[in-house]
């Protein structure tokens, strides 16, 4: 077990800068998830921790020791690859035991450890098979077993579940969570799927274009995102956004947007103008047109049985998703409707994407509302 | 309607296949038929073999021919082995290590292989003489490498380029040195490519005629293609057609054996499994 610390780590491939001066501190035993859109540099950052990619600048420390120049095999890390990268010409048992074999451990010691790990992961009946004779889930388990058998200081996972179908993904997600509970080793897990991040992580690191947008617990990121990117990335379905303009009305400052939206600001308003607002689908309520704060047309309803989503067209280029408590009557579809929401559910963003904490909306969502 | 059409198409496919088979196999068959006929029977175009193996017995009793078989085997096996060793090393560098001149290197390697043999013949002759290798089978190995190394390097470079990087990285994480990665991961998985390039190199070295004729002088140093070319009849006026045919059939057998042995490796290797499913 060990802590990990990155100090202004950056990486360029040729002239192409992929990671920009990332600082990050990961505590011993923590489960940290790197999440971000495809191509944002998650894998590269993980490979830098592993030692498979050398950083162009900065320091990587594991367990308080500078390991920037230490080769991957001496860092005490185990890596589970997206493609699993099992050795196709070796049996399951040899795949799991190969690292120990390379260390030069005695055959019976290796066999014993391999068997223990295989039992734990329920692949002990497959020991003589080749990887190609395994199902996706079994390969996944073998790949985890290969990492586990070395009792590493740190586990690194690079999108380990993205090649599985959704049922299996849920199951393996639970198992990885259980694994972390059992071995209590530091884990860094990369995914582009925010729901995986939310369910697994102690702390989430949101990456975008090689920069850290925010680091925090799942709750913090959901309830108190620092900026528009995090607000839009965390949560499913994603937050609804609308561009707004601020102006001075007779009874004080207000912001206005599509669908006849008007929100009054009080005098305490920050001088940064609000350029955009965001509301999560679960905070919207479908009401009659006159009662709503926003006017829209209910275009479409998705009935998933346990959940119902409505798609409300507010203007030509704005459609908001709303989570409905039950499927609405069919005759409401295609008709005008209204959207209502508590002012506390509104997130306000400046033109540069930063979140404005004191936009002056009465009873605005903020740090204080974190349960 | 569709059924008839399908049958016609199927029939045409089989016909085309037979045509190709006959076209490629008939010369060998004809050589075999001719090699079992004696004297005047040779000049009758009967399609059935006479099954008279006199010429084969004569060949086995001919020390020069048997010697040339040994020479050929030595030259072909050594050439194959050396080109694979050189090819794998070069391909690893060209496929894995990024350096600016890589493209240029690959082009140069390809260029080497497009010169006609005749062009380099006299230069090589000087070189071989200078190295004191004239009239030695080793001279042939050296010169054949000139033709085999470029294409082995090319084929193996392609393979190494497509080899999943994550497998190598997994091995690195598992604590493997470069040497262990090469011997435990890369080489076992390269089986099919090694086999197919190896076969090509072997065939080339086994069949080569021009260099072999030029760089060897005495009978005991000849390789099989030259030895066959120089088989003489009992008198100046007799063309030893039957003997030549018997020799041709004999030298083809090792090639067939090699291909069959390695083909099993190729098939086994190809099915050895992808990295992901
Ligand atoms: N070896 C490499 N050479 C050049 N560019 C690379 C290399 N590896 C990654 N990149 C680039 O770095 C960026 C981030 O890649 P990656 O870390 O794999 O993203 P992610 O895992 O978040 O999808 C991409 O634009 C990718 O093209
Ligand atoms: Mg990735």
Automatic annotation (TrEMBL), chain A:
Query: Which keywords, in A-to-Z order, does the entry hold?
Result: ATP-binding, Cell inner membrane, Cell membrane, Membrane, Nucleotide-binding, Transport
Record domain ABC transporter: where: 4-234
SMART domains referenced in this protein's UniProt entry, alphabetically = AAA
Entry GO MF terms: ABC-type maltose transporter activity; ATP binding; ATP hydrolysis activity
Record membrane topology: Peripheral membrane protein
InterPro entries recorded:
AAA+_ATPase (IPR003593), ABC_transporter-like_ATP-bd (IPR003439), ABC_transporter-like_CS (IPR017871), ABC_transpr_MalK-like (IPR015855), ABC_transpr_MalK/UgpC-like (IPR047641), Mo/tungstate-bd_C_term_dom (IPR008995), NA-bd_OB-fold (IPR012340), P-loop_NTPase (IPR027417)
Residue spans making up a coiled coil are none
Q: List, alphabetically, the GO terms of the cellular component aspect.
A: ATP-binding cassette (ABC) transporter complex, substrate-binding subunit-containing; maltose transport complex
Annotated SUPFAM superfamilies: MOP-like, P-loop containing nucleoside triphosphate hydrolases
Locations listed in the record: Cell inner membrane
- Major site of localization recorded for this protein: membrane
The entry sums up its family as follows: Belongs to the ABC transporter superfamily.
Q: What is this protein called?
A: ABC transporter ATP-binding protein
Lineage at the top is: Bacteria, Pseudomonadati, Pseudomonadota, Alphaproteobacteria, Hyphomicrobiales
């Amino acid at each position: 077990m060990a802590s990990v610390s990155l100090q202004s780590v950056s990486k360029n491939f040729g002239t192409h800068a992929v990671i920009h001066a990332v600082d990050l501190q990961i505590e011993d035993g923590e489960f940290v998830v790197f999440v971000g859109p495809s191509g944002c540099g998650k894998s590269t950052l993980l490979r830098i921790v592993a030692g498979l990619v050398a950083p162009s600048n900065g320091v990587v420390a594991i367990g308080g020791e500078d390991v920037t120049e230490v080769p991957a095999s001496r860092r005490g890390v185990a890596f589970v690859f997206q493609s699993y990268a099992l050795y196709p010409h070796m049996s399951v048992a040899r795949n799991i035991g190969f690292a120990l074999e390379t260390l030069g451990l005695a055959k019976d010691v290796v066999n014993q450890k391999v068997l223990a790990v295989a039992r734990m992961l329920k692949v002990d009946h497959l020991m003589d098979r080749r990887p190609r004779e395994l199902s996706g889930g079994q390969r996944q388990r073998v790949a985890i077993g290969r990492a586990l058998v070395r009792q590493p200081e740190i586990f690194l996972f690079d999108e380990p579940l993205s090649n599985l179908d959704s049922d299996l993904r849920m199951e393996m997600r639970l198992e990885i969570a259980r694994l972390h509970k059992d071995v209590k080793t530091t884990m860094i897990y990369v995914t582009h799927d925010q729901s995986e991040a939310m369910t697994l992580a102690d702390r989430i690191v949101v990456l975008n274009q090689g920069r850290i947008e925010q680091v925090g617990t799942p709750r913090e990121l959901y309830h108190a995102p620092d900026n528009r990117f995090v607000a839009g990335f965390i949560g499913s379905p994603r937050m609804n956004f609308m561009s707004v303009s601020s102006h001075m009305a007779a009874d004080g400052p207000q912001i206005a947007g599509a669908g006849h939206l008007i929100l009054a600001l009080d005098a305490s308003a920050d001088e940064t103008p609000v350029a955009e607002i965001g509301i999560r689908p679960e905070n919207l309520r479908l009401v009659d047109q006159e009662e709503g704060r926003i006017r829209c047309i209910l275009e479409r309803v998705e009935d998933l049985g346990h959940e119902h989503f409505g798609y409300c067209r507010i203007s030509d280029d704005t459609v908001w998703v709303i989570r409905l408590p039950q499927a609405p009557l069919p005759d409401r579809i295609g008709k005008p409707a209204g959207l209502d929401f508590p002012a506390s559910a509104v997130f306000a963003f400046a033109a540069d994407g930063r979140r404005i904490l004191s936009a002056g909306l009465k009873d605005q969502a903020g740090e204080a509302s974190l349960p | 309607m569709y059924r008839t059409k399908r049958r016609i198409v199927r029939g045409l496919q089989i016909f085309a296949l037979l045509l190709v088979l006959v076209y490629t196999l008939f010369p060998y068959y004809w050589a075999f038929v001719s090699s079992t006929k004696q004297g005047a029977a040779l000049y009758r175009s009967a399609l059935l073999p006479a099954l008279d193996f006199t010429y084969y017995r004569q060949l086995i009793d001919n020390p020069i021919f048997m010697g040339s078989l040994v020479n050929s085997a030595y030259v072909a096996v050594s050439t194959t082995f050396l080109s694979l060793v050189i090819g794998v090393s070069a391909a690893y560098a060209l496929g894995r290590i990024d350096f600016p001149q890589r493209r240029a290197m690959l082009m140069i390697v390809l260029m080497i292989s497009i010169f006609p043999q005749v062009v380099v013949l006299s230069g090589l002759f000087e070189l071989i003489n200078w190295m004191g290798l004239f009239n030695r089978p080793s001279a042939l190995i050296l010169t054949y490498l000139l033709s085999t190394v470029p294409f082995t390097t090319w084929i193996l470079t392609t393979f190494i380029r497509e080899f999943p990087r994550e497998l190598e990285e997994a091995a690195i994480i598992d604590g493997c040195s470069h040497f262990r990665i090469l011997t435990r991961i890369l080489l076992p998985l390269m089986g099919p490519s090694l086999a197919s390039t190896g076969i090509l190199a072997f065939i080339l070295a086994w069949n080569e005629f021009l260099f072999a004729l030029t760089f060897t002088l005495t009978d005991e140093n000849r390789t099989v293609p030259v030895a066959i070319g120089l088989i003489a009849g009992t008198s100046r006026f007799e063309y030893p057609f039957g003997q030549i045919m018997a020799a041709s059939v004999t030298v083809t057998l090792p090639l067939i054996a090699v291909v069959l042995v390695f083909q099993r490796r190729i098939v086994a290797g190809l099915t050895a499994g992808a990295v992901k499913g």
